[in-house]
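Morning, I've got a small favour to ask if you have a moment. I'm working through a protein record and want to make sense of it properly. The fold is given in discrete form, as structure tokens running alongside the sequence. Can you walk me through what the tokens say about the fold? Thanks so much in advance, here it is:
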Amino acid sequence: MPGLHHVTAIASDPIRNFGFYTRDLGLRFVKKTVNFDDPATYHFYYGDEAGRPGTILTFFPCQGVPAGRSGVGETRRTAFRVPLRSLDYWMQRFSEKSIPHQALEKHFAEPVLTFSDPDGVALALVGVPGAENEPGWSNGEIPVEHAIRGFHSVTLLLDDARKTAAILTDIFGFKEAGHEGAITRFVAAGDVNGSIVDLQEAKGGSMGYQGVGSVHHIAFRAPDDAEQNKMVQRLVTNHGLHPTDQKDRSYFRSVYFREPGGVLFEIATDVPGFAVDEPVATLGHTLKLPRFLERHREEIESILPKLEGAVS
């Protein structure tokens, strides 16, 4: 099934990040692990009850890293799906919790509530008719009928969208679905979480750079290794791009490449999923390490900040 697999961003304080996404937004804490390339840094995964592809927002909490700057070549916004009738609930909740947000807007005839997290990550809730019939996860505070239902879309800010559009359509199975001002919408087949990518052109705009509050990369779905390899071959043959070798991320297997507009893309397999090393019922309860880091567990645990009550 085409669409987004996950989105990974950069945070500062891990404890604040954990509290905002699990308590304020009500996402499930799906996995507590580390950055495999920097084990002194957490890697948090938030999503739905089972951590399905298309629901997962992940973070590298990097204390001491300066703030990024939004601009060309970066992800402008990450949007979640909520039931249409739940937007009033979320506006009231944001006001009560002093979460910065804007008035409701309309984009592509859909109501959009834009807001930001404590590190300035640009987010939105999009009201979707019928989303209340999709599976929802409740943290015990946010009623399940108002719960976030996974991703709606990502918006990329680009100097020129043409080559990026070719990647979306040829490699990931998206189709152009409409225009609104400088934004072109691309939609994947099937009504699934994370089935929309909006490309916003800003020719001559200032380049962005990454830091706290930035999206690090966007991951797209591949059902398995064989399909992922086909995508890689098309990237090489049709677009002259050369992705990395496959990397084992324990819960999926990944290849990475910089798309023509400058955004780091990942192709992540749906398999094996987040229940490969712990039951779905207890996802996120304990620190999980890849086999090659397990012998360093005591040292790693001594460095990482303690998350009080860090269970899903």
